[in-house]
Each structure stands twice: as C-alpha cells, then as structure tokens.
TrEMBL record:
EC number: 2.8.4.4
Source organism of this protein record: termite gut metagenome
SMART domains documented for this protein: Elp3
UniProt protein name: Ribosomal protein S12 methylthiotransferase RimO
Record-annotated Radical SAM core domain positions: 306-586
Gene3D superfamilies: tm_1862 like domain (3.80.30.20)
This protein's GO CC annotations: ribosome
Gene Ontology molecular-function annotations: 4 iron, 4 sulfur cluster binding; metal ion binding; protein methylthiotransferase activity
InterPro entries: Elp3/MiaA/NifB-like_rSAM (IPR006638), Methylthiotransferase_CS (IPR020612), rSAM (IPR007197), rSAM_horseshoe (IPR023404), rSAM_sf (IPR058240), UPF0313 (IPR022946), UPF0313_N (IPR013704)
C-alpha cells in the first residue's frame, strides 16, 4: 500500500484516501463494481474548489462507490473511457472548473500556452467542449448507461446561447451532447437526488428533480411555467434572444423560480427551478467532507497551477449579490449568499496547517467577493418577493445587512490559531459595501474598522479591487458602482499606508470593449488613471461567455432589459485600440 507522509504531524495518506482513478486503485478497495464514474476535464485535485472532487465526495458520503477519470485521452483507442467498465448507476461529466473555451483561448481567440488545471500547465490535455466530446464517446461505448452532465460549461449552456468562439447561436448543450440530464449550478443536492432515484428504481423518471434540465418531445406547459422564444425564433431575431435573457436572469434571481421551457426543433428543453437557498448546515456538510486537499499522487513531481493558487486559501461563502453584468458567479452559485460556520472554517484552517509546505501564511480567506460573509436580507419575506439581479446596484438595498463584524471576528479567530502567522485576503474587495452609509452607526463603525484592519493586517503587498471602468454610462451597463467610490477608497487606502509606514499597492482591475464602451470612454479612462498615477497591469479585453447580460448585449446589439440598441466594439481593430488605451505609458 502506498503511503505519503504529511508535515510534522507525521500524518500519512494512503492511495485509498483519494477516490480511485484506475482499475488497480478500485481493486485496492476490494470493490467489484462502481456505482458512478465521474469524467472531468481537470486534473483530479481532492479539494473543495475542484468540482469533480466535490461531486465524488458527495456521492461517496451517500455510501456509493465512486471513481474519477481525470482528463481522459479522447484521441487514442479510448482506453481511458473503457478502463473502469460500466457503472451500476450512471456516468457523471464535468468539463472542469472553467468553460473550456475560456480556458483554451484568449479574448482575441488565440490559443493559450497554459492550462492552469492540468499537470505542469500542459495545454493539450482537454478537447474543446469536453462535455460534448466525453458524452458522445460514452454514449457510443455504453449507449444504455445514463450520462449526467454538470459544471460551469454545461450550466451556462443549458439553453440557447451565443458562442463567441464559433460566432454562432447554439442550441442547448443537451441537444449537442446527447446527455440524459443536465445538473446546473452547484451540483451536490441534485446529484444526490439523481443517485437516490436510480437506487430506488432505475426505470423511474428524473424529470421532476429540481435544478436539472432535460430534453423531451412531450412537454406539457403548466400555469406558472415560462415559455421562452424558441431556438429557431432567436436565430431569426436577435431581439428575441435578448428578451429571453431577461426572463432567464429574473427567474434565476428569484427565491422561488418558475420552470422554464424552450422549444428547439421538435423537442423542448425543460429547466426545473433550483432548490431553495442552502442553509449554513448544508454548506458546512459539503466543505467538511473528507478531502485530502491534495492532488492525486499520480501527479507527484508535477505542478498544477490552479492548485498552487488555492492550496492555502479557504472559501468562506458561496453566492454573490453583486450581479455584475459580465460575471457568471451569481448565475452559477446564486444571488443569495450562504456562509459557512466559523467552526467549519476554523477546522479547514487547521487542516491546511498540516500540509507539507505550509509556512503559516493563508493566501485568502474569501469567496466570490472578499467581504460578503454572513450578509443577507434582514427581512426574508422581502427577499422572497424580489427579482433584482443585484442587491447593491443601482443602490444598496435597504433590506441588505452589510455588517462586517462577523467577518472581523472570523479574521481574528483564524489569526489566533496556533501556527497561523498571517491571513491575507486575495479575493476582490467590494469597496461600495465598505463605504455605504447605513442607518445603524454600529454597522458604519464596523465598516471603518474592517477597512483599517484589512489594510494593515491582511494585504500581502497588493490589494485587488475591481472598478472595471471610469465612465458612468459604461459602469451602469456593467452594474458597477460610481468610480468616485473607488477614488474615495483609494484615499483611505493611501492615508492608512502613510500613517502605518506601509508600502502597499492598490491594484484596480479594468475591462475594455465592454458593451456600451466607445473609444472616447477608453480615452477618459486613460486620462483619469494617469492622473491617479496608475500604470495599469490587471486589465482584460471583454470576452463574451455564455449566459451573461454583457454577452447577450454584445451578440444581439440590444440591452436585454430595455431592448434598446447598444454599441459594442467587435472588430479586432476596434478591440485592440480600446485595449491599447490602458497602456499609454508604453507609447513613449
């Protein structure tokens, strides 16, 4: 039996502490049959930030025998797809933690040289659209075995969507892949229900499981169902595609959503409403599963860049109520923030403390945003009737609790753990939450105290924030706050640094070529950031990705909420000119 020594505690992990990836590893567990086999476009890292590990561990906790096949070779004799045989229940497929096309190509459609989720960053270990490729192969080999697809690639492509890399409007990924069922969003609850349904009766229907989508020729529309314009109608009229997006987003932001139907040819894609918002106990249960937090031993001697980035970080909540127009986080994780208990977080920190090369420094205590921990509506009833895409745009909702005291308490508790020298905040900070004037003086004092403590004790030299633009019109389309708030925060940051004799940098993130942004807006951005003495580094050209408001506006030419025409820079010349505006200091 293999053994791997971990740190000074002399803790040892055996090969069977990871989910099996080979026939030999299955045999070491004395298993004769597998219940579920998970195929993933990523390397297998047994960590709660890697989706295949989360699904595998979730099913394992249900008493199922689960194996993972990471990054199978789709170009040879398909031995990776055959080696573990036929599962008793189903195959599960995830394209990986990122959309495969974002992973493989830049905004200018150039092939990337590195894949962060692959050993040694190799860029040739996954195909384009792995969900489609893997599903088709498995259906050819095992036609009668159900295939369940999930993850970010499947979730964001569950309905008619624009594909930037093919420059075309595509059908639901269910049509192109041939999968039996699609799990969207965070998949623990639906995959448990799928497994339980199969265990009870393999012939039973899966069509009533929440947070799933399926194709059918016999969709009966109920009174509360929402029927979208069909795929064919959207092909013929871009304005209908834009109108569809508004209805999809509004339903996804409701506490209790309706079922969505969209006809494609002679079939209908049916998207069932999601589960109710998770409880803290639900989230703790997922994060407290027995992850080793390490890459599988098969990768010994190789580095996995994405793992290097997060191995000493802790995710403290899921969900984001920011509603940024270009972001998929709220679409995938939900608008309502669910926070882990302090006890669960502390337990994970103590596990990190035992990792081989941990030196006492946590790289991040964060989430989709750094400072949304424990924030939610004060009156749940008001949230239940709300369909706003953002709780903080165009203004912070009066019903939102913006108290930073739970987060301050968490930071202090973590820093008090023996062996923790410092906890840094690597996630993006929402300065609009910090600068918000609440009617509660105690909440305002906590925000000021948080800024002070964050800047003095939790910055590793650079603090990331994301103003994204300077122009008010562009920021409105992005659903981002006024740039004046960034300038106010910068003054506070600089003042505290001077007072404490610190030499830290504020690193703003910006986007060019976003819908609504014209060349004169980029010139304004260049002038303002020059006056603020920024030489911008963290910038990106807008990349249209499925199921975001910005993408629909970019493709259709209409704002989905107003259906009014909206300009977007689309040609290479236009996009490069906008991007070059960031780098005025390189023009000599």
């Amino acid at each position: 039996m293999y053994a791997f020594a971990i740190f000074a505690t002399m803790k040892e992990y055996r090969i069977i502490d990871w989910l099996p990836t080979t026939k030999k590893e299955v045999e070491l567990r004395d298993w004769e049959e597998l219940d579920v086999i998970v195929f993933s476009g990523d390397a297998y890292v047994d960590h709660p930030s890697f989706g295949a590990a989360v699904i595998g561990r979730t099913l394992e906790a249900e008493g199922l025998r689960v194996a993972i096949v990471p990054q199978p070779n789709w170009r040879d004799d398909l031995r990776d797809f055959k080696k573990l045989g036929r599962p008793r229940l189903f195959f599960a497929i995830s394209g990986g933690c990122m959309d495969s096309m974002v992973n493989k190509y830049t905004a200018n459609k150039r092939l990337r040289s590195e894949d962060a989720y692959t050993p040694d960053g190799r860029a040739d270990m996954r195909p384009e659209y792995p969900v489609i490729v893997y599903t088709k192969i498995l259906k050819e080999l095992w036609a009668d075995v159900p295939v369940i697809i999930g993850g970010i690639e499947a979730s964001m492509r569950r309905l008619t969507h624009y594909d930037y890399w093919q420059d075309s409007l595509r059908r639901s990924i269910l049509c192109d892949s041939g999968a039996d069922l699609l799990v969207y969003g965070m998949g623990e609850k639906p995959i448990i229900d799928v497994a339980r349904r199969f265990l009870a009766d393999k012939s039973s229907t899966l069509h009533d499981i929440p947070q799933t989508a399926y194709l059918t020729q016999n969709a009966e529309q109920g009174g509360n169902d929402i029927s979208l314009f069909s795929y064919e109608e959207c092909l013929g009229d871009k304005k209908k595609q834009a109108a569809n997006f508004r209805r999809i987003e509004e339903e996804s932001n409701k506490y209790a959503a309706a079922r969505i139907l969209q006809q494609t040819g002679n079939r209908t894609v049916v998207v069932n409403p999601p589960y109710p918002t998770w409880t803290q106990e639900d989230l703790d249960r997922s994060f407290d599963l027995p992850y080793t937090r390490l890459p599988h031993p098969k990768y010994k001697g190789k580095r996995i860049p994405a793992y290097d980035m997060i191995k000493f970080s802790v995710n403290i909540h899921r969900g984001c109520f920011g509603g940024c127009a270009f972001c998929t986080i709220s679409a995938h994780q939900g608008k309502f923030v669910v926070s882990r208990s302090k006890e669960s977080i502390m337990q994970e920190v103590k596990m990190i403390r035992e990792l081989p090369d941990f030196k006492g420094y946590l790289s991040d205590l964060g989430g989709p945003s750094a400072n949304m921990y424990m924030m939610r509506g004060k009156n749940d009833a008001l949230c239940h009737s709300c369909k706003r895409p953002s709780c903080i745009h165009p203004a912070i909702c009066a019903n939102l609790n913006t108290d930073h005291r739970p987060l301050l308490d968490l930071y202090r508790s973590v820093d008090a753990i023996e062996g923790i020298k410092k906890s840094f905040i690597g996630s993006g900070v929402r300065y609009d939450l910090l600068l918000h004037e609440s009617k509660d003086p105690a909440v305002n004092r906590a925000a000021a105290e948080y800024m002070h403590e964050l800047i003095i004790h939790h910055v590793s030299g650079r603090l990331k924030v994301a103003p994204e633009h300077t122009n008010a019109h562009v920021l409105e389309i992005m659903r981002k706050p006024s740039f004046r708030l960034f300038e106010t925060f910068k003054k506070i940051f600089d003042k505290i640094n001077r007072e404490q004799d610190l030499n830290q940098q504020l690193i703003p993130y910006f986007i060019s070529s976003h819908p609504g942004c014209r060349m004169e807006d980029m010139k304004e951005l260049a002038d303002i950031t020059r006056q603020l003495n920024f030489r911008l580094e963290q910038v990106q050209d807008f990349t249209p990705t499925p199921m975001t408001l910005s993408t629909e506006a970019w493709y259709t030419g209409y704002h989905p909420y107003t259906l009014k025409p909206l300009f977007s820079a689309k040609t290479q010349k236009e996009k490069l000119a906008q991007r070059d505006s960031f780098f005025w200091y390189k023009k000599g």
